[in-house]
Amino acid sequence: MELLYGHPKSLNPVQTKYCPGCGHGTIHRLICEVIDELGVQERSIITNPVGCSIWSDLYFNFDSVQPPHGRTPAAATGVKRMLPDHLVICYQGDGDLAAIGTAEIIHAANRGEKFTTIFVNNAIYGMTGGQMAPTTLIGQKASTAPYGRDATGEAGMGYPMQVCEILATLGGTKYLARGSVNTPANVRKTKQYIKKAFEAQMRGEGFTMVEILSPCPTNWGLGPCEAEDWLEQNMIPFYKLGEVKNTLDAAAIGGAK
How many domains does the chain have? Predict the structure, then answer.
């Protein structure tokens, strides 16, 4: 009997520490499925910083490096330059990447560093208490914005950042896509984006990133099913899904097939 579906070799068979309804587990599986399909488990390294992503090394059955908060792109730069034949992954949340790590991700992208960032956007600080993040939507409540994010009021909270669109202006970025894990169809599409980004990295084309919209039921104050609906109704209209920038070498892609 042919086995059509099973547990990825690159994913450790352990119980999750993530909250019910969290999208991190699904994202982990997608990463590992793609790594297995590409046959690069022994040449894969993930860099995961402080935040909910701090647990990542428990689940991935390949090497990991844990840099300080926000400094993952700097660490990944060093790893990839020393081991250019390896698949190097930055795994970052929105508070990490778009706040304390803004300088690192922008300059790494602008330099065209040849690693792939998996950017998990749940529009909130997940591990530290549900504070407002750079990606928190207008009107969305957080522990530091109890009445909702107000861009122009006295609090001066500013606007939510669309990271893919910002990085798309930089010359070093080759592939930027935004997916989601709130429906089976979006999960399948997100996996395609991840695979395309990983393949481009292994060809040495330049900086690649896949942003993934993910629910955070605990800090949104919603049940798991309600959180999926909230993401669909509120996040996706603002953070449009799809390929934001694709300047990959079409000839190389054709040759890979």
Answer: 1
Q: How far out from the chain centre does Cα 224 lie?
A: 20
Distance of alpha carbon 129 from alpha carbon 127, whole angstroms: 6
The single-letter DSSP state of residue 140 is: -
Is 107 among the domain residues?
yes
Alpha helices in 42-183 (DSSP H): 56-59, 72-82, 94-95, 102-111, 163-167
Give me the domain span that covers residue 206: 24-256
Q: Is residue 8 part of a domain?
A: no
Tell me whether residue 170 is in a domain.
yes
Other CB atoms within a 10 A radius of the CB of residue 33 amount to 19
pLDDT of residue 57: 83
Q: Domain for residue 16, yes or no?
A: no
pLDDT of residue 237: 97
How many CA atoms are closer than 13 Å to the CA of 147, on its beta-carbon side?
6
Residue 157: per-residue pLDDT: 92
Amino acid at 226: E
Q: Mean pLDDT of successive 10-residue segments in the chain (257 residues)?
A: 82 92 95 97 93 85 91 96 97 92 96 97 88 94 92 87 97 97 97 98 96 96 95 97 92 56
Q: How many CB atoms lie within 10 A of CB 142?
A: 22
Fill in the amino acid letter for 113.
Answer: E
Residue 78 to residue 132: CA distance in whole angstroms:
31
Residues found in the chain:
257
What count of Cα atoms within 13 Å lies in the side-chain half-sphere of residue 216? 27
141: domain CATH number?
A: 3.40.50.970
